[in-house]
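User: Continuing from earlier, I have the next pair ready.

Assistant: Great, send them over.

User: Here they are, in order.

Assistant: Folding the first of the pair now:
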Amino acid sequence: MAWYAYCITERNAYPELARHRRPMPLQGITGLFGNQTFFFPAADLAVIVSEHLPEDAARLQTPDAQIAAREHARVISTCFAQATVLPFRFGTTFEDDDALRRSVRSNQRHFLANVERLRGKAEMHLKVLVDDICPESRKALQPEHHAGQEYLSHLRESATRQRERQSRARALSLQMHRMFLPLAEEITCKRMDSGKMLLDIAHLVDKKTVERYQNKYSTATLQMKDCAMQLSGPWPPYHFVQREQRTHA
C-alpha cells in the first residue's frame, strides 16, 4: 500500500499508540480527500500518513490539488497542537511500508536532532510591505534604440537601485529582529508589481512567548507607520526544518 506523508513526530507523543508496531488509525483526523490518517511507528519516531490510492495521485495533478494542499496543512496543524512535528512537503509519498521505514531509518539521527531542536517552538509569519525607495522608470531603455554609453548608464543606475533596495531590506529586517528577538529567522524580499517591496519574514519562537510576540507586533504597527504589516501564526516550523533527508519513495 502506498502512503501519503504529512509529518514526522515523536512516537511517545501518542502514548496510547506508542506500543503498537503496525500503522494505527488516528481518530478524528481525516487526510487528503477524506482518507483515514494513520500513526505509522518507526523506531523512536512516527510518521503521520494516509492511504494513497492511484486515483488520489491523479487528483493531485488537477485543480483539486489546491484543496488537498489546505488539507495537508490542516493535518500538520492538528498534530502540531499535540506534539513537535517535522512537516513533509506537500505531495510527499512512499510506495509501501518498506520504503517509508527505510527513509526514516536512513535519516533517523537527522530527524531526532530536528525534533530536539524544534521541541516547544513555533513559527510566526510577518509580511511587511513598504514603498519602493527606487521606483523604476516608466520607459525602460532598450539597447537597440539608444547609444551604448546611454545604455551602460542605465545599467549602472539599475544596479544602484537594486543595491539600495537590498540595503533598505537589510535595514528593515534588522529592525524587525531587534523588535522581536526571534530564536531564528528566514527572510525573503521581492519587488511587487504595485511598486512596493515585500519582506516575507518567518520567525522561530518559543511557544510560551507567542503572546509576548503578538504584543510586540501591536507595538511595531504603531511605531512603523510607513509599513503595512500582517501577522499570522503560531504555525508548525515549516521554514526551520532542515531538509537534508534521503527518501526512498
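And the other member of the pair:
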Amino acid sequence: MVFQALKKYITHLYTTKSVNTNIWIDDTGQVQGRYFHSTLTSSFQPIRSSLDTQIVGYHGLARSYAPHQQSELGLSLWRLLDYGASDDESVELDRLCRLVHVINFYRQPQAFGQDLYLNLHSRLLAAVQHNHGTAFRTILDRLELPHQHIVLELPQSSQNQRWLLNHVADNYQHNGFRIAVNVNSIEQAIELTRHRHVDAVKLDSSICNDLGGLTKLIHIASDSGTNVIIKKLDNEAQYRLIEQRVKADEHEVLVQGFLFDKPQAALFKAPLKGPRNEECTKCGTGQLR
C-alpha cells in the first residue's frame, strides 16, 4: 500500500535538502535527522510471537549516522546527548526521532499491517505541559499514516511518578494511540495490568527468572487483553525456559532481542538466525518460511 501524502512529503524532502533543514533523504532513500551537530537515523528490531516466531511488530531505535560507517546500527543518540540536553531540547529530539522513525518505517511496503513501537523519553512526560500526543497525531494525520498501528512506549516510573504516567497514558489514548509501559519487575507488571488498561507491558529478560510469577502475569494479562513483551532476550537457555512455560499453558508472549534479530534499517531484508541457529528467511508477508 502506498501512502500518497507520505510519498509527496518524501518527494519534497528530496528536493529541499540544505544545511538549514533538520530532516532529509540520503541517496539510499533513508531518512536522516539533524540534532545539534549529530545526524540520526532509524534502526528497527522485530518483535516476535513466542508461539511461532512470526513477526508482529517492530521497535524503532534512534541511532547516530555518519557516511561510510562500518555498521548501520550506529550509537544510541540518547546515550550520546541525554546529559547535555535541556528538557526543551530533549522534547525536540524525542519528536524528531518519532518523525524520522515513522517515515523510515512506512516508506517500506513491508510495514503495512505491522505495529511500530516508539519510545517516549522520560523527560517528555514532565516537560510537555499541554495535551500529550496532539502534535504527533496531527503529523500522522497530515501524512495519512495509520496511528492505530503506533504503540507508544512509556518509560519505567517509580510509585511517586505513577500519577504522571497515568495522566500521560490517558492523554495519548485519548488521541487514539496504543500504550505500552516498561516495568522493572513482574510484580509491577501485574499491578499495572490489574489497575489500568494498557496494550502491552515490557520486561527485561533478566527479571523473568521467576517462572511462577511470569505465569501469573501472563494469565492476568491475557484476561485483560494486554500483551507481555520480554525484551533484551539474548540467551537461548533463558528463552527455552520461557518457551516451555508458555507452550505448556498455550499462552502467547512476545519476544524481542539479539537472539532473534539485530536492529537494521530495512524490514525483512536479510536471512535471520532462529533461536536454534537455524537459517530463517523472511518473505514479503512477514511470515517465516
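Worth noting for the second one:
Residues 87-106 form the longest helix (20 residues). Residues 270-289 have pLDDT under 50 and may be disordered.
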